[in-house]
Amino acid sequence: MSPYENELHAFDVDERAGFMPPSPPLTRLPQLWELWETILDATIHAKLQLGGKEAEASEAWRVRVRQLPVIPICELDSPMLLRRAHLVLTYILHFYIHTLPLTSPICIPKPISLPLVRISQKLDIPPLLTFSDTVLYNWVICTSEDFPTPLNVRSQTLFTGLRDEEEFYLCSARIELRGVEALQLVRATMDETSVNDSIAVRHVTQYLSTLSSVIDELHALMNDVRNGCDPDTYYNQVRPWFCGEDSDANKRKWVYEGLAEEGLLVPKELSGPSAGQSSLIHALDSFLGVNHGNPSFMQRMQSYMPRKHRLFLDHLMKSPRPLREFVVGARDGELEGAYNRAVGALKKFRDAHMIIAHLYILGPARRAASLRNSKGLQGEGKGREPVKGTGGTDLVTFLKDTRTRTIEAVIP
User: Fold this and answer.
1) Which residues are annotated as a binding site for heme b?
2) Which residues of the chain carry a pLDDT beneath 70?
3) Do the bridges between strand 139-141 and strand 106-108 make them parallel or antiparallel, or are there none, so unpaired?
4) Which CATH number fits domain 162-233+275-412: 3.40.50.720, 1.20.58.480, 1.20.272.10, 3.40.190.10?
5) Which residues are annotated as a binding site?
């Protein structure tokens, strides 16, 4: 294994798969935790509905959850087992919460709350669904190949079974996998900036030109979500399953039963899965010198990432010769132009993200609000608070701010 591979391995980053594992994630827990897998299978098979619809069927399933034993987790002794357990329990958690009537209090029973909080403490991530659950560790290979590529992965666990939901997850997975080349360019550039001579300037210029092209491809992959995911289907049937406590329309608190008596801390970070939790995008920001402020939503989203991925981002931030500083100090027009084009490509990526947000969230939110208003109802959208992302932010303000911060990195 090369020194570069050793360094990546320490951060649980793969040279060929990036922040995704190089082999398919575990698809089922061992027999000791089969009850969790069985209860998740049951709800997926039953096609339970959001917001208290089909109340009798959903309550019957929730009774089964409440009657589960509290299964010990001491033998979940590997990252692979812990990740699978977190995925299974958080999908059960979100099914449990989002099948409740919209005004019912949210009280998560001990058979879920206790093992989930303990597992989350071991993984050092919050006890609810995250980007890593829906994207990084939620796939299988659909060909005879043994390595993931943007063309051969399929999602494993879905709330709805709809192609729209799967394409939403796969859009992010494809970006992660195509982004591996960007990570390679980041590493190569960091090696050159430590040399800091005229040859290094030429090499970095070339790497940044290539990086611009890679980011353009990530932009195209994000736009491809339109090919398989319908905006209104996503907004009305898929997105509500992701919501965390801080994007609940009725501001209900999530109560995890039994924590105090077991000496467990009450979780404070309860935002749903968000593209803001992608370590790849954070890595590009750090590398290109995009400063989102301190504290910021982007900084807070790092607490939802796998722990070793956060350490990788810290490693980038602590580079002894940051890229932007290197470019400014070199006083080389070609290098500066290549750097600004890379930042510009990232800005265009964020422009595309804003368009997708308008298409998949803001537009459907307005249409849903108009329909509710015509019926004398209330909800997210017009006449209420600003539309929130699944990460709990004012979506429009957040997207505009990240784009502005990206533009500010350009060297005048």
Assistant:
1) 353
2) 1-5, 375-385, 391-392
3) unpaired
4) 1.20.58.480
5) 353
